[in-house]
């Protein structure tokens, strides 16, 4: 079991939560980005820098993430590629994408993109505050522990 982070736009507080969990639970985490990022030295933490370009980070994660891994991304089309193959996906805002809800999230994202492009709606996401950070931490912790229990059952 491994944690993958779509790191190009991952908020710092989310990165910190993931790093603490990685160290506490001894779970490998890989950050993937198209720009250089610095992380603490640890055998549990790795960083992959991919080429610049649209969806290059996504393609890397799709290629290397495996069933029962956990991916943190705000990229709903990436989540839509991962969820059907048994990869757990959580957004930095605490949304947990599942086979039951990924189509709805993707449709909502597409609708909002069309409305923004047409000038019908403006603005971006709500501010990233303590409430959002807690929502992520709760969903992340719950899903990470579920996956670790699943892994333990497979080992036994």
């Amino acid at each position: 079991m491994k944690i993958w982070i779509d790191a190009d736009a991952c908020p710092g507080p989310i990165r910190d939560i993931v790093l603490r969990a990685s160290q506490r639970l001894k779970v490998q985490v890989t950050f993937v980005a198209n720009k250089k990022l610095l992380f603490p030295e640890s055998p549990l933490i790795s960083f992959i820098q991919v080429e610049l370009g649209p969806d290059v980070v996504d393609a890397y994660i799709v290629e290397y993430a495996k069933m029962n891994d956990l991916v943190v991304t705000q990229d709903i089309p990436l989540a839509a590629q991962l969820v059907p193959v048994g990869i757990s996906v959580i957004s930095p805002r605490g949304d947990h994408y599942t086979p039951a809800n990924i189509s709805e999230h993707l449709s909502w994202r597409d609708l909002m993109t069309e409305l923004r492009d047409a000038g019908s709606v403006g603005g971006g996401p709500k501010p990233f505050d303590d409430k959002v950070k807690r929502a992520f931490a709760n969903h992340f912790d719950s899903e990470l522990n579920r996956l670790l229990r699943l892994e333990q059952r497979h080992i036994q």
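The beta strands are 2-6, 28-33, 45-49, 70-72, 88-90, 96-97. The radius of gyration is 16 Å.
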